[in-house]
Amino acid sequence: MTAERYNARESEPRWQATWDEKAIFASKNDDPRPKYYVLEMFPYPSGRIHMGHVRNYTMGDVLARFMRAKGYNVLHPMGWDAFGLPAENAAIERKVAPKAWTYDNIAAMKKQLQRMGLSLDWSREFATCDPSYYKHQQKMFLDMLRAGLAEREKRKLNWDPVDMTVLANEQVIDGRGWRSGAVVEQREMSQWVFKITKYSQELLEALDGLDRWPDKVRLMQRNWIGRSEGLLIRFALDPATTPDGESELKIFTTRPDTLFGAKFMAISADHPLAVAAAAKNPKLAEFIADIKKIGTAQSIIDTAEKQGFDTGIKAVHPFDPSWKLPVYVANFVLMEYGTGAIFGCPAHDQRDLDFVNKYGLGNVPVVCPEGQDPKTFVITDTAYDGDGRMINSRFLDGMTIEAAKEEVAKRLESELRGNAPVGERQVNFRLRDWGISRQRYWGCPIPVIHCPKCDVVPVPDDQLPVTLPEDVSFDRPGNALDHHPTWKHVNCPQCGGKAVRETDTMDTFVDSSWYFARFTDPWNATAPTTPAVANRMMPVDQYIGGVEHAILHLLYSRFFTRAMKATGHIDMSEPFAGMFTQGMVVHETYQKADGSWVTPDEVKIEVGSNGRRAMLTATGEDIEIGPIEKMSKSKKNTVDPDHIITGYGADTARWFMLSDSPPDRDVVWSEDGIQGAGRFVQRIWRLINTVAPHLPPPGTKPDVANNHPSAKALRMITHQVLADVSGCIERLRFNTAVAKIYSFVSDLSEIADDPLRHIERDPIYGAAAREAFDVLVQLIAPMMPHLAEECWHAIGHGTLVTEAPWPKIEPALLVSETVTLVVQVNGKKRGDVTVPRAAQNADIEAAVLALDAVKAALGGKPVRKVIVVPMRIVNVVG
Ligand code: ANZ
Ligand code: ZN
User: Of the four listed, 328, 435, 651, 666, which is most buried by Cβ atoms within 10 Å?
Assistant: First the structure.
């Protein structure tokens, strides 16, 4: 029988329809089997899926299909992170309503995702802009308000004085509004915040327990939370130099050991002392106004040139009343951290050093590195922040940094001024409360009403949801909700008088901070969750997404889950037991001589004797092949998943995404790569069709008792690859799983070529072959599910491979996982060592040198050489 080519275009929709009809992927909440929750970060409905989605969702799908076959009740839902600015921009640019734009995009992207053959439970689908979703978010906001987890706080915001609107940090470009070009001002306004800082310590400590998270993500979260232990010191101010009413300056330092290297004090432009001093000093007031213009973004503050203004005020050194330090207002001191004031020790802090070098204040090193002579050790342009011994520091001289910190803390703690100690140990966190107010239309309305009499009044629960009006216009800048002629005008629920709704909406990060919990029971119309169900189906066992969300989204979700616990909506603290951050999809870039980018579709590549050459297909014009970069619209190096699926089929795209590199690394999308995957699909199809007519019927059990060498050899290969691939999928090592399948297919091709009659003539061998081909089809099923169904059918099964339980590994058939090596010292046997079969020489050496017998035989002599004879002997030469 000659096999026809596998026709993905015909086959894939057919199997998708079959899965759909049987609702195979719909998980039931009363399913008694153990649950497994697989979740990929849900997409923003931009209109089209991109290759990053294909990679992300393929990985999750492999795991979901695998765990389903392993007998778990798998929850694998999908939804839409649907609020956000692009919908409003579309409304402004193209005059389409944000709602219509969003739902159209959702419909288009859903079709695309469905073509990928993902094992998703679409019955749980929702979009965060559905009132039936955000209604519950509003309820939880009110619960959090009552629990003291949501509050109003005055915050500085970027204000565009021309557009009369608040701008997000990223809308401020070089200090100007992105649309108006006006110089942006900082304005204090009341904002809603979530009190995430109540959980700073807990969020930090609990990271230790998240052992299925990448270390780098945990480290990023640790740094973001930014716990530091230090000392709060009250510096007395010299009364002769100080504005009325001010007598001391509180600072926070993590380096009290460096107090004798102090050269100046610096305070934030918003510090009360700066405000008081500016009231009497117009030049200072001008300076303050100036430095405030650079905006509030940390990155800007970190990179801006250090600037200061000497207020004339002097602070008194806590260990020496005759030592006076000038107080500057400086642009690198933030009001939001510590006390908004510092003492500057230039020798050991780079910012302070840059500052003194600009203003000619000099520096005195007080920590001397090991091996340096304190008499000659000087600092010029680079501050020294390493270890060493104290110098130039009176009673601290000779101490380690740690001892000096302790000594300073002890002395200042016991010294009183007024009746308070001068120094106080303090723990500070970088983490700020989460400001959630956004002056935007397309977001979840914050459900409160402002009444002139009663102040802030929560919208009563039975009036939820507060829905967005649909008749909005975007013909002027600012918040369309605020401009709406009637929406905000309401009667106060408390006193009945005239009042106005809050017109701010919630940060879209709120929407994505609990969607995973909603998926457990999206049908509950009266509450955000059904706690009994949420507690059973949560946490997410494996969450998969981009590393760009390593900090905010994951941290907010961890906080929100705790807030839901505090308000009775779920009974756990950590939402994601396992986290995986996948790499990006990258592609070559192509550029014309004039510098403009061209898409891969427009380019023809030729491989000649001096490498690859690119030209424009249409004109033959030479094209420069540029570096491989993240797929992006601006560089036009994107590849449209739809084209790939139409051209090659979803299975080919899925297979290539999994095969080419480790899932946490970037994968280079290439035409060669996708073609190779396509050829492999055809190869499997040919193999299956060649062998199918000769296999014994499904259900033929391999003979375990009979010692039949060739059947046993085949069964050993089969069970080894089964064990290997299962392990790889469990550990998300998809590329390794793919490599194992490639080699299995090569093995099976050999037996399929010639000894076909052997399969028929020898029933014991035939049964082993039946097992081998069944296993092959099951192994590819999580990755190439449509092809697998077609193959399963071709080898005679009347069932769906998607519903077949994962084959059982027979441990007796596994090639031993470990090897035992003889250990010799100078040629004499001293024992043996058992190591993993895959152990590297370095590991083997380490294991051998740790043996007591080896140490004894060496008798303290140094090791000159270790010779490893693979699988047999290790000889230590001493
Ligand atoms: C004196 C000193 C000497 C400092 C030295 C550092 C090195 P972390 O570790 O991030 O907590 N600081 C304190 N409040 C600040 C603010 N509001 N804006 C800018 N900088 C501030 O950093 C604590 C250190 O950052 C503090 O220790 C303080 O400078 C500075 F050789 O005090 B240090
Ligand atoms: Zn009222």
Answer: 651
